[in-house]
Design a protein that fits this description.
- Chain A is mostly helical.
- Chain A has one domain.
- In chain A, helix 1 crosses helix 9, helix 3 runs antiparallel to helix 4 and helix 4 runs antiparallel to helix 5.
- The radius of gyration of chain A is 19 Å and the shape is globular.
- By secondary structure, chain B is of the alpha/beta class.
- Chain B has a single domain, classed as Rossmann fold, CATH 3.40.50.
- Helix content of chain B is 30%, strand content 15%.
- Chain B contains five helices and eight strands, in the order E-H-E-E-E-H-E-H-E-E-H-H-E.
- Classes of the chains: A mainly alpha, B alpha/beta.
- At the A-B interface, helix 2 of A face strand 2 and helix 4 of B.
- Bound molecules: iron/sulfur cluster (SF4).
- The site of iron/sulfur cluster (SF4) has 13 residues of chain B, from helix 1 and helix 3.
- Iron/sulfur cluster binds next to helix 1 and helix 3 of chain B.
Chain lengths: 298, 187
């Protein structure tokens, strides 16, 4: 790797490390404000998520067992590692696998508490993972077919506009993004809104610092999830980079809209619909792309 | 300044209320009153909550429930008794299975009388409680800062001077405990 590429990778990873949680927290704050406006309410201050996390850090530490905190910290660390790998331009597959590891740690943390609510939450979290993983992997495959590389830095700088050939994959990814953002109708394992049938799902037994760590992990996660959206729009030019960022924000707005327009669905629907979307939009897209390539059309 | 006053998360428990006060509690969440503008969230989980909102009186069946919920909440925490039933037993006071107000089982920090307590009074009660919450927080910070021989809960249990909120939402005398209106955010 050339020297200036290494330096740039290191710098963008560092920027993510520092700016990431602020961007994520701000997104969450804007989310709550827009949600409130959509419901005809005034809503909390934009900085409310930061107040919440600061408060949680001040609270008394109560844990069910010693392992739980360790697992949640692992979840946070792996989430950060995922983002750092992504923003330093590393292999997309590696990014996806680290993301899965982070989520698995969350599931283990929830299971370790022995609380029935957390356990059902953990089971649902696993079901959610089953629902979105195929689509995320197909996205990586599609990125490789168009840009001839799994490396994020190559995908970003290659002059091929991924969206043109991967429009189906993009739609599929937008669909599973609802699951990843924990938005209705797919916020099965844990919801940001009050009173669900599982109390608070996976986070039921977490409080204070542990809950704060999880919230920060979620902020980090949201930022690089939107980074995936950006990949579809980058072709190495600055104006497409601007378009990419704007589309990321629009995507987030769309998720808020969906969140407010739907009630929670059952897990059966989540699994079926996301797999169906994966096959119809992701699978068919990649199959057509394969044939186009074989016959030399693209 | 303590951040606990900026994001008080509430858990609501219905003792043996007639549901009148519960409906008023829920009314606080509606666009009309929108307590989220103070950062107040209605959570269903005692482990996430800072404010324990109890409506209705305590009966023999729910003593253990109320106690357990209170114990599950991490410090600092406050208890707000909403409605005259939660304050003293109210019209159910003489019933064979009623033990009395919430303070017969757990320490109460703010009393919000009224039958039913108005949403304005409930919000006022929670906001008044924030002062107590901040004080508890400060005491906790001081404890963990100095010698860690005493556990935070030891001092937390000592009964605070309770505040009363009139049901029409006004307080005649200034409460003994510094109840500031902090946490009102930008409302
Ligand atoms: S105070 Fe009045 S409205 Fe509230 S629970 Fe008691 S009887 Fe019902």
């Amino acid at each position: 790797m050339e020297f200036h590429v290494t330096v740039f990778s290191a710098l963008s990873a560092l920027a993510y490390l520092i700016v990431g949680p602020f961007a994520g927290g701000l997104l969450a704050g804007v989310d709550r404000k827009i949600t409130a406006k959509m419901q005809g309410r005034y809503g909390p201050p934009i900085l409310q998520p930061f107040y919440d996390v600061r408060k949680l850090l001040e609270k008394e530490a109560v844990t069910v067992n010693n392992g739980q905190d360790f697992y949640v910290m692992c979840c946070l660390i792996f989430m950060i590692v995922t983002g750092v790998l992504f923003f330093s331009g590393e292999n997309l597959l590696l990014v996806i696998f680290t993301l899965t590891t982070a989520t698995v740690f969350l599931v283990i943390a929830a299971y370790s508490s022995n609380s029935p609510y957390a356990q059902i939450g953990a089971e649902r979290e696993l079901l959610q993972m089953m629902s979105y993983e195929p689509m995320v992997l197909l996205m990586a495959v599609g990125m490789y077919m168009v840009n001839h590389s799994f490396y994020v830095r190559d995908i970003v700088t290659s002059d091929a506009l991924s969206l043109k050939l991967l429009i189906g994959v993009f739609i599929g990814y937008m669909f599973i993004l609802t699951i990843k953002f924990r938005k209705s109708p797919f916020d099965l394992s844990m919801s940001h809104h009050a009173h669900q049938e599982l109390v608070k799902g996976v986070t039921t037994e977490f409080s204070g610092r542990t809950l704060a760590a999880l919230e920060v992990a979620h902020w980090y996660e949201n930022v690089f999830l939107l980074g995936f959206v950006f990949l579809f729009f980058s072709n190495g030019t600055w104006y497409m980079a601007v378009v990419g960022v704007v589309v990321c924000l629009l995507a987030y707005f769309l998720e808020i809209l969906i969140d407010n327009a739907y009630a929670r669905m059952k897990w059966q629907f989540t699994l079926k619909s996301s797999w169906l979307m994966t096959i119809i939009f992701g699978g068919v897209n990649l199959m057509l792309l394969y044939f186009f390539k074989a016959f030399g059309i693209v | 300044m303590s951040y606990v006053t900026k994001s008080p998360w509430v858990i609501h428990y219905d003792g043996s209320s007639c549901n009148g006060c519960d409906i008023e509690v829920l009314a606080c969440l509606t666009p009309m009153y929108d307590v989220e503008r103070f950062g107040i969230i209605n959570t269903g989980n005692p482990k996430h909550a800072d404010v324990f909102l109890v409506t209705g009186s305590i009966n023999e069946q729910n003593i253990s429930v109320v106690k357990q919920r209170y114990e599950q909440m991490p410090e600092p925490k406050i208890v707000v008794a909403v409605g005259i039933c939660a304050t003293s037993g109210g019209v159910f006071r003489e019933c064979y299975n009623i033990k009395g107000g919430v303070d017969t089982v757990i320490p109460v920090d703010v009393y919000v009388p009224g039958c039913a307590a108005r949403p304005e009074a409930i919000i006022d009660g929670v906001v008044k409680g924030l002062g107590v919450l901040a004080e508890k927080q400060a005491r906790m910070a001081k404890l963990s800062g100095s010698a860690k021989t005493e556990t935070a809960t030891d001092t937390e249990q000592e009964p605070d001077e309770a505040i009363e909120v009139r049901y029409y939402g006004k307080v005649d005398e200034e409460p003994a405990v510094g109840a500031s209106g902090e946490g009102k955010g930008e409302a």
